[in-house]
Amino acid sequence: MTHKVTELLVVDDEEFNRDILQELLTEAGYLVTLAADGEEAWDIIEGKRHNFSAILLDRMMPRLDGMGLLSRIKASKQYAAIPVIFQTAIDAPSDIAGGIKAGAFYYLIKPVNKEVLFAIVQSAVSTFNISDDLNIAFNQVEAKLTDLLLRSEYQLRTLPEARTLANALSGYYPQPQRVILGISELLINAVEHGNLGISYQEKSRLLQAGGWEEEIERRLSLPEHCDKRVRVELEHTPHEISLQVTDCGAGFEYQNYLEISPERAFDPNGRGIAMSKMMSFDTLEYLGKGNHLLAVVKI
Predict the structure, then answer these.
(1) Averaged in consecutive runs of 10 residues, what is the pLDDT profile of the chain (299 residues)?
(2) How does DSSP classify residue 48?
(3) Is residue 129 part of a domain?
(4) φ/ψ (deg, to 5) at 151
(5) What is the span of the domain harbouring residue 214?
(6) Do residues 17 and 119 both lie within one domain?
(7) The model's pTM
(8) How far is the C-alpha of 6 from the C-alpha of 145, rounded, in Å?
(9) Spatial CA neighbour of 233 closest among 124, 159, 179, 152
(10) Distances from the Cα of 162 to the Cαs of 88, 120, 139, 186, 293, in angstroms?
(11) What is the CATH number of the domain that holds 148?
(12) Cβ–Cβ under 8 Å, residues 115 and 85
């Protein structure tokens, strides 16, 4: 069986930065293509000789800068699903929030921590692969699932189950690619923070050390967590699709995570809820103590 190589595009006007990223990512098993500015990168993308699963993009560059290239990518139906990771020395929180709002998957500040880089790239590639698989599946299905669904309920326990369910649930929405990342983020959040009690600070340390998923597996095996499930409900009406997610946790101060916070702009985590609210759903609210959420898409 042929192993599929994951292709990445690295765009930076500094040769030193390009070479470092190429060395690190090649060592991690990725096939890396380099570009020195946005125009060169766009020519490579338009050349259609590559199948990029993610793009790492500097913000300040000659000819076409990072925001300009991001705008072109997100405006293209063919390339909009490719996750774009900004990696730049610009550390102003307003610039970071602007990049995220423009469609960037994540924002890494130079110099980039190697373990954080690997964790974010892996997350971006996984998200793209889920979305790509979803497109293939939808091209083979003629019936619109949104016409068939009234209400459905599910329960899950693990990260793979969360990702699989996110893939399946997105198929009930008119624009699956819009919601798939948001649903995935909310379900994973319910598992790791809600059911397993991994704190914000703990996840930051785990991502930087490269042991996030291993710690989740360890906690899932503990007796006190064996019977915990995340409950998921999806309901379709003529005017909206509502998603409810309930975990077994004690809740949290969700108000601090509904917007992209300047105080947490440089952390490797903490943007998932805000990105889901901003990009995937028309409304997103937490109910009660914070272990129950309602996310709505108008149709």
Answers:
(1) 77 93 94 96 91 92 92 87 83 71 79 82 78 51 60 94 89 83 91 94 82 91 96 94 96 82 65 80 92 95
(2) T
(3) no
(4) -160, 140
(5) 143-298
(6) yes
(7) 0.73
(8) 31
(9) 152
(10) 31, 18, 23, 9, 16
(11) 3.30.565.10
(12) no
